[in-house]
Amino acid sequence: QVQLVESGGGLVQAGGSLRLSCAASGRTFSRYTMGWFRQAPGKEREFVVGICWSDGGTNYVDSVKGRFTISRDNAKNTVYLQMNDLKPEDTAIYYCAARSSLSIVRLSTAYDYWGQGTQVTVSS
Length: 124
Description:
The protein is an all-beta fold. It has strands spanning 3-7, 10-13, 18-25, 33-39, 46-52, 58-60, 68-73, 78-83, 92-99, 113-114, 118-123. The termini are far apart.
């Protein structure tokens, strides 16, 4: 049974940083793509960034390029999202997701497994 557990959310002032973690278990993820999505109140869930577990290839949404960095630790089966220069519009619940494919896609319905989410709140 695949399990994704996010952690690291919290309250931070604008310009601050947070690092989210997603611990994955229950499967060998070498042929998976991992994604971070977020959902703000009253808005649809949106893709933030994805990483291919096997080769480390990444895909970022334009609004976070240069501020967010995704990485993975194969030994720990953990994916990280380093978020710098946070803005109030980054406030959302952040979700980790896994897709049984080597291609990164931005469509949430293409992902097979989801974590429970972690709240990120950025104050102005």
